[in-house]
Amino acid sequence: MDEQNSTSTQGALLALLALVLLAALTGCGIGRASNQERVSKTATSYLRALASGDTSKACAQLTRRARGDVCAATTKERLSRLQPDTLTRAADGSIDIAVHGNTATAGLSEPKGGRFVLTKVDGEWLIASGYTLTAAVASPALTKQQYQAMLTSANARIQTTETAAEKLGFAPNASHARAAAALERWADAEAKNARFLAAANP
User: Fold this and answer.
1) Dihedrals phi, psi of 201, to nearest 5 degrees
2) pTM above 0.70, yes or no
3) Whole-angstrom Cα distance, residue 36 to residue 33?
């Protein structure tokens, strides 16, 4: 009988000790999601939402300032330039996370150089910048034939603008302001096409 009471007492003590240890571990934060885990969840949720075309969920991962007034519309427009498969691979890939107080960065394995900057708002990690991603997520590079056709078209536009500017500049009744404005439009068109073609060069 005494042996049974002793066994019961030991069992009760062990159960009590287990409860005390559990309470201590919970108080130390064991079992709660870390900041790194929460940052990772926000980043992957955003990428997967974009990949599936869920603009509402994607916008929910952004800070109020990043969302702006027309987040769903701008995100939908942005999706037309992104590849779902690439976004999914980015979500499945490793994320290099660094937390500094209430700010964190999440470096993506794909696209190369992609990075989110997150801010802790009311205990929740939200993306503040980097949400537009980079040109590396955009549609695949053009083929040589497509690039050549684009180059020809761009050069034609530049030539048309340049010719119009020259004609206006030499016209007897052309004002200096109108000629200068035409030349400025030509210069802007040439610079814009140069940047666009450089980014699209396969």
Assistant:
1) -60, 120
2) no
3) 8
